[in-house]
Amino acid sequence: MSTTVMKYEEALARFEPVLGIETHIELGTRSKMFCGCPTAFGAEPNTQVCPVCLGLPGSLPVTNKAAIEGIIKIGLALNCDIVEWCRFARKNYFYPDMPKNYQISQYDEPLCVDGHLDVEVDGTTFRIEIERVHMEEDTGKSLHVGGATGRIHGADHSLVDYNRAGIPLVEIVTKPITATGEKAPLVAKAYATELRELVRSLGVSEVRMEHGSMRCDVNVSLMPRGASEWGTRTETKNVNSLRSVERAVRSEIERQAAVLDAGGKIVQETRHFHEDSGTTTSGRSKEEAQDYRYFPEPDLVPMAPSREWVEELRASLPELPAARRRRVQGEWGLSDLELRDVVNAGALDLIEETVRAGTDPGAARKWWMNELSRRATEQNVELADLAITPQQVARIQAMVDAKELNDKLARKVFEGVLAGEGTPDEVVAARGLKVVSDDGALAAIIDQVIADNADVADKVRGGKVAAAGALVGAVMKASRGQADAGRARELILEKLGVS
Amino acid sequence: MSAITRDEVAHLARLSRLALGDDELDHLAAQLDQIISAVARVQEVAAEDIPPTSHALPLTNVYRSDENRPSLTPEQALSGAPAAEDQRFRVPRILGEEA
Known about the structure:
The complex is a heterodimer of chains A (499) and B (99).
Chain A: H1 8-14, E1 15-26, E2 63-64, H2 65-77, E3 81-82, E4 89-92, E5 102-105, E6 112-121, E7 124-137, E8 141-145, E9 157-161, E10 168-174, H3 184-202, E11 214-224, E12 234-239, H4 242-261, E13 269-274, E14 279-285, H5 286-289, E15 295-296, H6 307-315, H7 321-332, H8 336-344, H9 348-356, H10 361-379, H11 390-401, H12 407-418, H13 424-431, H14 439-452, H15 454-461, H16 468-478, H17 485-495
Parallel strand pairs in A: 12-13
Antiparallel strand pairs in A: 1-10, 1-11, 3-6, 4-5, 4-15, 6-7, 7-10, 8-9, 11-12, 13-14
Helix pairs in contact in A: 1-4, 3-4, 9-10, 9-11, 11-12, 14-16, 14-17, 16-17
Chain B: H1 6-15, H2 22-40, H3 42-45, E1 63-64, H4 74-78, E2 84-85, E3 88-92
Antiparallel strand pairs in B: 2-3
């Protein structure tokens, strides 16, 4: 079944999108939210479960203090107020991903409220208002058996693994995001990116979307340009990469615009995002679906974080990404555009660590943004996933600074390290890559080059010093790039009596 | 006026995946109405200055430290399951509610 869409440019000329983003982040605590089970990703099924997270009769939950510290840190980093008193709530629903038949969450009393996060798109800053940040527990994972696609439709039965059930989960909800116009998909992506960086800097979660430790639900509605009343929204789930956040918003804008253009109505519903096609399909409709019958969780006492504790946590916050970017921009002397390129390439951490290992910022940035970015693109991996460490990059640059390597040889060392041939020093030794600046070794090569290029040598002798460049080139070629070009030039001129 | 209607009981039954027949609904709606009406009498004595009680104990901030405790073995975990397959709990398919 194909869906009618309107061209993006036309859709934006006629409609104004309003977004809302709900992000779930699994905290990286050692134990689960309400019990002592481990939280390792990828463990064998049902090996990290106990009576509490299986909802067995007689078991009682007890709140993990590290998880509460984690969410308060996230709240503070998002400029939220931390409430003085709040409770957990039971969210009742009938689905086997929670064995208790309810999820412990928060309802009308979230722990953190009224924050904001600034994001930048193409040089413009958008302030994303945060409605709330609340604490809950993750659900188990269902495997649908018998269906062709692993989805529930057509499945005979489902197999459930409760290892993930009860892992601390933080939900971050934005207020409606308006006035972003045609930049709406980019703003959504920039928000998810900045939120990921922020939470990563706090050290409270791995925030790896490919592992599901960060997941986004994207709400989109359209209203005709000039209108004041918002349209009906849809909620797209299953958006599990930063790029998909952008694609999902764009695709929903194009689809909804076509429905409205044809005189149709948007149905308030959950939609599923498909990575392969970049489009959404209808899930369950909201009207029939949810009646969660929330009530205060009787098994857990209220939380009343003291102001002293909150201030202690505030004082413990590390330098946050936005402040850090401003700092390194000054320290490294980058233009706005250069900084943006570094951030977009995911090179900030890598360059900073390389600088910390003793390399000049300019050289560190040059290697990561040129040579290594090119190789990452070739290998189709992220820069940080290349098989080389910032310390190794620093070591190679140190050899360049000591004139033991020139740029060309350095690139060969990078190649060797990336190919798993060992450390930079091992690659230099194994491949014999040291610059030849030893006069004796150079002299033999130079004599040969002068003999082979007698006509050029005569020109140089006759005063055309610029022609010596061709001889230096020949020396470099003969030495397979290993000659010290500066020294070779000096020796050539000396030999030809023009120095 | 009844405290809970027959339609509300039918709605709750559906949310709980309980298949109740017409006579069961008649029977249970009347019983639940009596129970809720009895409990609702508390509201008659609750003044506006008394906040609703959600917890019997006047405690806040009960936390545990982030330490691991032994989990069950998968065999123990699955021992009470009506059905298991591939070390997982096996449950009937549930239509129309994809999580």
